[in-house]
């Protein structure tokens, strides 16, 4: 038995010395000291040893175990030190190199303009409402007094998913959906992305953003519309801003108007920015057509209202004096850092 233990000790010591990695060293530990290891097998065979010899054999086994465990720990410490030295040698950090600069982004010009518009109207008691970008023809056109065959459908160059579903051409469908709910009075703005089959140039894009507003209540008049938009223009472009309403036509409002603001660059005197006119067109508006109210379940004899719509990109272009709409979408950091 003593010779067997001596052979196990010599074989284990040899394999420990040959181990050149921690994984191989662990394999040796398991092979000799594990639950199914050679030294453990000797202990399990003690039942075959004469009772008077068992204490002596147990002592030999423990001595061999202690010797091997010490050798294993010593070799483990040596291999760990070598691995650490190699890692430090391979992963040298040059502390003289410049650090990586963490760039912190900020809001896009469109987002800045949108938050400003929302702030103004929320301050007037309006709520912000959103709706689906993929819309039924019913809400995008019919409930806005644009039936099948109406020329306005051709003017908007709509993207059709199928005969009844479109990519919305304005955010007015959100207004129709809110009116259908019948929770009156209504004071809301509906910002969002809209889609039209336009060629990309300095002032057009097939995907852009609109902000449309709606007020429905008793005794609402055109004077309320004018007062609201005048206050909006002064908050957005400055307290000296003046507004001008020009007669226009929209299928869903009657009467309708285009709204101009005095040029905030020259104060209305005429300059290159306003093309010498002193005025800049910003939005369209009007009193909600009685037929639109009827189709949305609102009695036009009891309730009236007004609506308006403005392009978000147009506000951003004017506010920051940008001359090409495409700059807003190109993600050029040299341009975006200016805001």
Automatic annotation (TrEMBL):
GO cellular component: cytoplasm
Every Aminoacyl-transfer RNA synthetases class-II family profile domain range: 117-338
UniProt cofactor(s): Mg(2+)
Major subcellular location class: cytoplasm
Pfam families (UniProt xref): Phe_tRNA-synt_N, tRNA-synt_2d
Binding-site list for Mg(2+): 254
Keyword set, alphabetical order: Aminoacyl-tRNA synthetase, ATP-binding, Cytoplasm, Ligase, Magnesium, Metal-binding, Nucleotide-binding, Protein biosynthesis
A GO BP entry: phenylalanyl-tRNA aminoacylation
Cofactor note: Binds 2 magnesium ions per tetramer.
Record EC number: 6.1.1.20
Enzyme class (EC, first level): ligase
Gene3D superfamilies with a match to the protein in the record: Bira Bifunctional Protein, Domain 2
InterPro entries attached to this UniProt entry: aa-tRNA-synth_II, aa-tRNA-synth_II/BPL/LPL, Phe-tRNA-synth_IIc_asu, Phe-tRNA_ligase_II_N, Phe_tRNA_ligase_alpha1_bac, Phenylalanyl-tRNA_Synthase, tRNA-bd_arm
Catalytic reaction equation(s): tRNA(Phe) + L-phenylalanine + ATP = L-phenylalanyl-tRNA(Phe) + AMP + diphosphate + H(+)
Subunit structure and binding partners: Tetramer of two alpha and two beta subunits.
HAMAP family assigned: Phe_tRNA_synth_alpha1
Family (UniProt): Belongs to the class-II aminoacyl-tRNA synthetase family. Phe-tRNA synthetase alpha subunit type 1 subfamily.
Protein name per Swiss-Prot or TrEMBL: Phenylalanine--tRNA ligase alpha subunit
Species for this entry: Blautia hansenii DSM 20583
Upper lineage: Bacteria, Bacillati, Bacillota, Clostridia, Lachnospirales
Gene coding for it: pheS
């Amino acid at each position: 038995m003593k010779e067997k233990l001596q052979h196990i000790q010599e074989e284990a010591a040899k394999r420990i010395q040959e181990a050149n990695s921690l994984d191989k060293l662990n394999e040796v530990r398991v092979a000799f000291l594990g639950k199914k290891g050679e030294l453990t097998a000797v202990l399990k065979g003690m039942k075959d040893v004469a009772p008077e010899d068992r204490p002596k054999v147990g002592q030999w086994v423990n001595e061999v175990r202690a010797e091997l465990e010490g050798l294993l720990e010593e070799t483990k410490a040596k291999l760990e030190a070598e691995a650490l030295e190699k890692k430090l040698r391979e992963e040298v950090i040059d502390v003289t190199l410049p650090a990586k600069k963490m760039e912190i982004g900020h809001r896009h010009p469109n987002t800045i303009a949108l938050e400003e518009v929302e702030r103004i109207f929320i301050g007037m008691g309006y709520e912000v409402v959103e709706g689906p970008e993929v819309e039924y023809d019913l809400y995008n056109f019919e409930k806005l007094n644009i039936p099948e065959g109406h020329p306005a459908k051709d003017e908007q160059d709509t993207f059709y998913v199928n005969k009844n579903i479109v990519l919305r051409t304005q955010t007015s469908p959100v207004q129709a959906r809110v009116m259908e709910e019948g929770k009156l009075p209504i004071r809301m703005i509906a910002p969002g992305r809209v889609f039209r089959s336009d060629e990309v140039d300095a002032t057009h894009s097939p995907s852009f953003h609109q902000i449309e507003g709606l007020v429905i209540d008793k005794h609402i008049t055109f004077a309320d519309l004018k007062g609201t938009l005048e206050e909006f223009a002064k908050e957005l472009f400055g307290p000296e801003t003046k507004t001008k309403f020009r007669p226009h036509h929209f299928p869903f409002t009657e009467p309708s108007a285009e709204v101009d603001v005095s040029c905030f660059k020259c104060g209305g005197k005429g300059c290159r920015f306003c093309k010498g006119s002193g005025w800049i067109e910003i939005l369209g508006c009007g009193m909600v057509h009685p037929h639109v109210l009827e189709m949305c379940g609102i009695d036009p004899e009891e309730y009236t209202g007004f609506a308006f719509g403005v392009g978000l990109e147009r506000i951003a272009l004017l506010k920051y004096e940008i001359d090409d709409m495409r700059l807003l979408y190109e993600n050029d950091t040299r341009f975006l850092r200016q805001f």
